[in-house]
Amino acid sequence: MDTACRRTVQPVSGNARAAVHQPGRHADSRPGRVLRPINGSLANGHSPRRPSPSPGTNGSSSRVAGFIECRYPSRPALHHRPMTNAPLDLYCERTSPAFWAEPVNALTNLSFILAAIALWHLARQQPRRPGADGTFLIANVAAIGLGSFLFHTYADRWTMLADVLPIFVYQLVFLACYARRVVGLGAAVTAALVGLFVLLALGFARLPGAWLNGSLAYGAAFVSLAAIGVWHHRRAERERATVLLAFALFLVSVSFRSLDLSLCADGALGTHFLWHLLNGAVLYLTTRAYLLNRRAPPTASPRA
């Protein structure tokens, strides 16, 4: 998610053109570097539009093509680069720095807003009030949609923080609330689980960002959601399959997120918008499972 791209115009000739047409290779073979033509296609396996040869050259001269140079540094990248308002170009749909350069990616964030509205309606129908924990999770789902909308419109490092921070906060709060109010774990064990999640997230964050288009940053969420899904299926009081369904949708959504740039042919929107649509459903299901199964606050002697 924190890929840095800059647009360049450079001659493409000889070996560079050959590399463009060979799937799995780039014109620049250095690790972690991808060249995207400005028209939106990938140099990796897709042919960019090139101007016609200049008169009198018989097509033998070097040709000039515009590219976006994308670098995928090792994570966590935010610790190594200053925060600026320079535009970022990370997704297939974006081909300019304009506000509405990613209309589909931006507008599909409505899925999170709709999920939050549906969750609030569900919470108000329950005999027990949602409380501060349930209300916070619902508001957090809406914040994820707003932050992602800002990132897919303004697309700079500040709005990238508005995108990723609510997601990470939701993961931590949901894990803590679920462990405490559904599983019934004590405060110390819950804190240990949250700490383990943070360590796991940091470990995945240090993997190269180019792997799976940065989707490995969600590795800790993937592992924890699978574990919660299994426990919920065996022990929950209501809707036992809900979290496993959320896990299955999350698996599909991560796949679409990972494929966005690799399927970026001329005129294609990419697949990132499907990540938004499916994750709206994922967060609805996980929060729903929590709201329907949360217990009263633990007593002075909680089960560890």
Automatic annotation (TrEMBL):
Any one Gene Ontology molecular-function term assigned to this protein's record: hydrolase activity, acting on carbon-nitrogen (but not peptide) bonds, in linear amides
InterPro entries tied to this protein: ACER
UniProt keyword annotation of Calcium present: yes
Chief site of localization: membrane
Positions of transmembrane segments: 135-154, 160-178, 185-205, 211-231, 243-261, 273-291
Membrane topology classification: Multi-pass membrane protein
A Gene Ontology BP annotation from the UniProt entry: ceramide metabolic process
Keyword field contains Coiled coil: no
UniProt subcellular location: Membrane
Any GO CC annotation of this UniProt entry: membrane
Binding site for Ca(2+): 102
Residues involved in Zn(2+) binding: 152, 272, 276
Cofactor(s) this protein requires: Zn(2+)
Keywords: Calcium, Hydrolase, Membrane, Metal-binding, Transmembrane, Transmembrane helix, Zinc
Domain of life assignment: Bacteria
Record region (Disordered): 1-61
UniProt name for this protein: Hypothetical membrane protein
Species: Azoarcus sp. (strain BH72)
